[in-house]
Amino acid sequence: MAAAYALIAAALFGAALVTTQFGLRHMDGLAGAKVSIPSATALLWLLLPLRELKGWDTPAAGIFLALGLFFPVAVTLLAYEANRRMGPTIAGAIGSTAPLFAVLGAVLFLGETLGITQMIATAAIVCGSVALVWRSGGSLRGAAWISWVAWLAAALRALAQVIAKAGLLLWANPYAAAVLGYSVSAVAIWIIAGFSRRPESRVYTRRGVLWFVLTGLFNCSAVLALYTALDGGAVSIVSPIAATYPMFTLVLNTVILREERLSARLIGGVALMVGGVVALLVQ
Length: 283
Known about the structure:
The chain has about 280 residues and is mainly alpha-helical. It has helices at about 1-25, 30-45, 60-65, 75-85, 90-95, 100-110, 115-135, 145-170, 175-195, 205-230, 235-240, 245-255, 265-280. It has 13 helices and no strands. The radius of gyration is 18 Å and the shape is globular.
């Protein structure tokens, strides 16, 4: 079940990437984050009466609240900045390395064991993900040092999974983890926006708002599925599987939007990712 929820999270993250592309045609990334994160938080709170927060654990709640200080808010903003400064090719390739950080963190801080099969499967998924997002002719726009933004986003995304797993070990309630974390992020994004001097971050359009609301719903559902997977499975298994989201984005772009053409690179990337997932499931 953990693997199934991880795949659901990957599919939802992949769909969110597509809706984000549409949203960014009408609004700035910071303005979009000011819409997507609070709208997702509102949905989680509206559904709260249907969920039971049994077994309240204060230390775990503190972990989930602290997690909200950088996930999803900081990861979202860093990813947008990396794409703006470096372009989607290099930023996407660096972001695809997040499972490596997550697996390393799980081994060091959670005591998870890592076998040869898991190492090879994780490497295959990461390589396949990079193959899917890479485009020929990709170049670094701007100063070379800005690459730290993309690496930091990948590391924080991985760290969020390790911290979430630590909190879920104390309080096995994925919904609490999602609603508490998103609540802090919703407040944080508006505070950050208040200090922004970019005029475009205050421009809203009807189409942009609708796309970013949809993005927020996809992302919060993906995070909830991810936390449910982490509640029932190891980070070293869940993180690589959840990182297959570029494969779902590719399917949407190819089949529905018809913006991608199949090539040897794409087919090879999908084969690597599917092979890595199968290897993890078999183990």
